[in-house]
């Protein structure tokens, strides 16, 4: 079913300079990442895997940042079959534990001179009610808090690069949240898996755009951008019962394969057309699939500065990670 739908996606009119045969390679065509270092979180599978693979093929040294060493090794072995121009290494990163994030970043800084690209891709969707090791609702904790802390810890290296980039991967589901409910970030209210996922993804966008504003305010050349992949067959749906999932897929006219879901992230990470605060998604119907274009899946809450400032202060206070400066 995935492949059929995906073929359908390729047959619709293309409007963003790519054509029906375009691949991840075309999105980063002509872009040589030799000598650059990238971290992709959640790179062992799905969209993160395809993002890391394309960056490796374009010459980058890519850190495949995963919580499971065995899965990371397997992913790297598979990526190496493509004989990319870059290099690959494992980074052990559990985004559900602030101390583990601090350790990952400290190790990275000890062993690397530079960081050019940080792709905040890892995510969890609709798990049973649960918390991170630090007590946050799991989706909010992994999808937003973990990446906030990670970005802050790595900021000292990121800011040294001219035109370095942070790409935060969000979701069209962010539009189902009007705001972050600060009275329900630690499962204080009856659990609603959909609602909590939407809030975590809105928080990610508010983070990306607030980081952009803060970087501009201090004259930094580091770019903070965001992307969403559309609707993609991956392990993300692992917590949804099969019958519910089957019914849910019927709501979508097209469902992409993971490599296509990686296109907006890759565009945001590498295109010279991108500026700080941009948000890219697929250009097809309801932004479910297609080739990278500025996303219109916005309600206004994403760029609400008052909400974003409140979220930033909350995250700084709870993580103890203060940046940028
Ligand atoms: N698929 C879609 O239709 C869709 C739509 C909109 C947005 N997105 C977003 O796209 C991004 C990639 O998702 P995907 O579809 O590729 O899903 P996926 O195949 O399930 O990949 C998610 C990745 O995140 C990792 N991860 C989960 N919890 C983690 C933790 N505590 N610490 C470190 N890594 C963790 C997973 O590791 P394990 O394999 O070890 O669990 C996996 O590598 C996510 O941010 C997701 O919200 C996806």
Automatic annotation (TrEMBL):
It holds the Pfam family adh_short. Coiled coil: none annotated. Keywords: Oxidoreductase. GO terms for molecular function: oxidoreductase activity. Transmembrane segments: none annotated. The keyword Oxidoreductase applies. Signal peptide: none annotated. PANTHER family: PHOSPHATIDYLINOSITOL-GLYCAN BIOSYNTHESIS CLASS F PROTEIN (PTHR43157:SF31), PHOSPHATIDYLINOSITOL-GLYCAN BIOSYNTHESIS CLASS F PROTEIN-RELATED (PTHR43157). Belongs to the short-chain dehydrogenases/reductases (SDR) family. This is NAD(P)-dependent dehydrogenase, short-chain alcohol dehydrogenase family.
């Amino acid at each position: 079913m995935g492949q059929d739908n995906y073929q359908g996606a390729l047959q619709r009119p293309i409007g963003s300079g790519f054509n029906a045969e375009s691949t991840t390679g075309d999105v980063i065509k002509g872009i040589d990442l030799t000598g650059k270092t990238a971290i992709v979180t959640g790179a062992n599978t799905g969209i993160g895997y395809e993002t890391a693979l394309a960056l490796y093929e374009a010459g980058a040294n890519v850190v495949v940042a995963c919580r499971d060493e065995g899965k990371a090794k397997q992913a790297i072995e598979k990526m190496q079959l493509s004989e990319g121009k870059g290099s690959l290494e494992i980074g052990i990163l559990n985004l559900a534990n602030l101390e583990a994030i601090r350790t990952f970043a400290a190790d990275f800084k000890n062993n690397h001179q530079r960081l050019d690209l940080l792709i905040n891709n890892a995510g969890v969707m609709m798990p049973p009610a649960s918390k991170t090791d630090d007590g946050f609702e799991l989706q909010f904790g992994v999808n937003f808090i973990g990446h906030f802390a990670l970005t802050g810890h790595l900021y000292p290296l990121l800011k040294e690069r001219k035109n370095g980039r942070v790409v935060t991967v969000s979701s069209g589901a962010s539009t189902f949240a009007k705001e972050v409910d600060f009275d329900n970030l630690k499962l204080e209210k009856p659990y609603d898996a959909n609602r909590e996922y939407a809030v975590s993804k809105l928080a990610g966008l508010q983070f990306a755009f607030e980081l952009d504003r803060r970087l501009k305010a201090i004259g930094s050349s580091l770019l903070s951008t965001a992307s969403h992949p559309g609707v993609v067959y991956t392990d993300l749906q692992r917590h949804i019962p099969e019958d519910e999932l089957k019914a849910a897929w019927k709501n979508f006219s097209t469902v992409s394969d993971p490599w296509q879901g990686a296109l907006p992230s890759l565009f945001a990470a590498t295109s010279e057309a991108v500026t700080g605060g941009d948000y890219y998604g697929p250009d097809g119907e309801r932004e479910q699939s297609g080739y990278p274009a500025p996303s219109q899946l916005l309600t206004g809450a994403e760029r609400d500065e008052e909400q974003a400032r409140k979220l930033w202060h909350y995250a700084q206070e709870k993580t103890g990670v203060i940046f940028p400066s």
